[in-house]
Amino acid sequence: MNNFAFSAGQAFWVPVLICTAGCSSPTAQPTPAPPVSHESHTNSTPAKKAGTTVSLLHEAAAKPSLPLEGGDWQTMFDGKTLTGWRMTEFAGAGEVQCEAGLIVLNTGSPFTGINWTNDFPKMNFEVALDAMRVTGSDFFCGLTVPAGDSFCSLIVGGWGGSLLGISSLDRMDASENETTKYMNFEQGKWYRLRLRITEKRIEVWVDAEKLVNVDTSEKKLSLRPGDIELSKPFGIAAWQTTSALRGIKMRRVDGPAGPLK
Questions:
Q1: What gap in Å lies between CA 200 and CA 143, rounded to an integer?
Q2: Ordered domains of the chain (ranges, CATH)
C-alpha cells in the first residue's frame, strides 16, 4: 500500500480542534484548509470515540513513561493545553483532541496532524515523544523536522503498519533507503521515539534501541512530495490512523550521540 496516494474531485472536510477531559482549549483556532483542486479527499463525519477507546486512552495515560537520557530537555506539550500547537491544514483531516492529558489525532482521510507554532532549531537537536496507535493500521507518527536548509520525516508504522524509516534520502522514501526497518508496532502500546539531527548524521531510537544511524554528509534530505509538506517546519501527523501522543520534548545537542557503525 502506498502511504501517499490521493484521489481527485472529492469534497473537503474542515479540520476541527477539540479539547475534552484533561485539557484546555488554546486561545486561537486554526484557519480552515482551503480547497486544493489537484488533491481532494472525502471524509465522513468523524466518528465519536466509543467508550472502549476512551477507556483505552485513560488506561494508556496512566502507564508510566520511560525516563529520558541526559538533561536540558524542553517541554513542548504540558499535558493540559494545546498551547503552542495548531492543527495542520490537511484536507480531509480528522479531529484533534486532548483526552486524559494526551494529544489524540483522530483518523483522517488520509492525514491528521499538528504543527508547532514556536521557534525551533534547524540543526543540532533531539526530539523525544511517546506515540501510540489507537486504531488503524498505518503510520501513527510522521514526525517532520528541519534539517539545515531542508526537511525530513521519521515515519513510524507505515506501509500497512510495520515500517520505520526516514523520508527522504536522495529522493528515496522511508520504504526504499538504508534507514528502512520493519517491526511489529502493537496497537494500544506506547513507543518512546527519539530523533537526533546533527550536521552529518541522523539517529533514531525506538524505546532503548537505536534503529537508525546514517551518515548524511553526502546525501540530499527532502520530504516526499505531497501533503506531508504542510507539516513543515515541525509537525506530527498520522495516516488513516488514530494516534495518541504525550511527553513531547526537545533539546539542543552538539553532535551525534555515538559513533557511526
A1: 19
A2: 16-252 (2.60.120.560)
